[in-house]
Amino acid sequence: MILVAFEGIDGAGKTTLSQILFSYLTSKGINALLTQEPFTKEITQLIESQGWKDPITLTLLFAADRSIHLDWIRSKRAEVVITDRYLYSSVAYQSAMGAEEEWIFEVNSKFPKPDMTILIDVKVETAMKRLSKKKDIFNFEEKLKLLSKVRKNTWNWPRRRDSR
């Protein structure tokens, strides 16, 4: 199995580009699987209903979600798996919220690294414009600050880690 992860801030275009790659591969007869993280609706709903913003709690919940996600992926036996978000999203977002990057990597150390990571970069202002078309952004300034930190973190990790 080849694991391809699309990474970038909210509104970068990960979903669109991962769908384009999936369509291309399947049109060529390749057994591909398109998926995304967070994977389980239950964990997403739990986080949203509780309003949790603690980076430690979120890191652990997203790691649990990733474990369930990977079990599901393995059961599908696809040649190529394309995921909209994966490990580096957790690192970028939870470290932007205050969790230690090395600890986030340690929590996720048992999960396979992607064979390829496609990092999509857009200006935060462009992403915010796209997001505002899709949904209401209740706390615009808070979201803007978070995405700015996440974007900075996203561009730093390839230089600091053995990344793919």
TrEMBL record:
| Signal peptide positions on this chain | none
One MF term from GO for this chain? ATP binding
Is Transferase found in the keyword set? yes
Which is a GO BP term held by this UniProt record?
A: dTTP biosynthetic process
Pfam families from the xrefs? Thymidylate_kin
Q: Which Gene Ontology cellular-component terms appear in the entry?
A: cytoplasm
**Entry keywords, A to Z:** ATP-binding, Kinase, Nucleotide biosynthesis, Nucleotide-binding, Transferase
Every Thymidylate kinase-like domain range: 6-153
Binding of ATP, residues: 8-15
Q: Which family does it belong to?
A: Belongs to the thymidylate kinase family.
Q: Which NCBIfam families match?
A: DTMP_kinase
Which PANTHER family does UniProt cross-reference here?
THYMIDYLATE KINASE, UMP-CMP KINASE 2, MITOCHONDRIAL
UniProt name for this protein: Probable thymidylate kinase
